[in-house]
Amino acid sequence: MVGGVLASLGFVFSAFARSLLHLYLGLGLLAGSGWALVFAPALGTLSRYFSRRRVLAVGLALTGNGASSLLLAPALQLLLDSFGWRGALLLLGAITLHLTPCGALLLPLALPGDPPAPPRSPLAALGLGLFTRRAFSIFALGTALVGGGYFVPYVHLAPHALDRGLGGYGAALVVAVAAVGDAGARLVCGWLADQGWVPLPRLLAVFGALTGLGLWVVGLVPVVGGEESWGGPLLAAAVAYGLSAGSYAPLVFGVLPGLVGIGGVVQATGLVMMLVSLGGLLGPPLSGFLRDETGDFTTSFLVSGSLILSGSFIYIGLPKALPSCGPASPPATPPPESGELLPPPQAVLLSPGGPRSTLDTTC
């Protein structure tokens, strides 16, 4: 709830900016702090609400990103034409304030597997002890590299379309179709992951690699006809990238409970978001620098795709990311449907042989 207020104030203050420094402080520091306080608790709490269909639930929640991109891409262009960038920021601040009542609807749950007492040391409170687990360290390193390229299309896909000869609304259409593919893929991949047919780390590595390859394709699309052109090749490449990136997104957070246990999922989500943000802090400026040096975004997208591919390669070190040489075991039977939404999950979360949570396992 506090994050919603801070993010809204960041947009509102930025609407009255008189210099670039004001935008750094408003959009970067204030709104960025608000997003940090919103995202990790929301995704971490959601992972604790669900057991059997956790990845689908995460994918459904993250569909909001795709839906907002779909709606806001043309809407923001209209707002910019009608009210200018200051009016657009004020309206975005009003929309962002709705995060506060949304946060009021999230209720904390006490689950088996939670620490018996609050952590006393600062390191334990921040969850830094999770880095002592090999699987989480591999996951964190791979995700940080992916974050270096993952956010580049969110910032530079529309300018890339403009460089390729499309007009303002044509560029917005490219962003919109990528968002449609992204949103739809999050739902489909969430359902697929929850079936247990393929281990989550393997899906994570595969769809991460496809995301990097999709970004390469977006960067290599040739110049289109002109401002009146629909940019068919670039639209197709944007859809392909959106499908792969959307499939990757829910897996990042869906795999965490298996790596750290349900009791550490909120801390793990916060740490992962910190690492992703560090990558995202470097990626778009590097992309802009490469564009200034080369004259277009081709090199930018190729470098960004290479970062994503590098992170996906590191995911291969996760347990079950590679097929084993032994006989294939059948998928684990999921908890009964009555235990999907928690509480009361006691009969579902506790293993028959003892009080240890069945979710507090490794991949």
Task: Describe the overall structure.
With 363 residues, the chain is an all-alpha fold. It has two domains: 1-107, no CATH class; 127-321, Growth Hormone, Chain: A, CATH 1.20.1250. It has helices spanning 2-14, 20-49, 54-96, 99-104, 122-126, 134-150, 152-163, 168-194, 200-220, 232-254, 256-260, 265-294, 298-314, 346-349. It is globular and about 55 Å long.
Order of helices and strands: HHHHHHHHHHHHHH
Number of domains: 2
First-to-last CA distance: 33 Å
| Helix/strand class | mainly alpha
Mean pLDDT: 80
* CATH hierarchy: architecture of the largest domain: Up-down Bundle
The CATH homology group name of the largest domain: MFS general substrate transporter like domains
The percent range for helix content is 55-70%
Tell me the overall shape: globular
Q: Main beta sheet: strand number and arrangement?
A: none
Key features?
14 helices; endoplasmic reticulum; globular; transport; single chain; disordered C terminus; mainly alpha; 2 domains; 363 residues; Growth Hormone, Chain: A; transmembrane helix
Summary, kept brief:
70% of the residues lie in helices and 0% in strands.
Secondary structure topology:
Elements: H1 2-14, H2 20-49, H3 54-96, H4 99-104, H5 122-126, H6 134-150, H7 152-163, H8 168-194, H9 200-220, H10 232-254, H11 256-260, H12 265-294, H13 298-314, H14 346-349
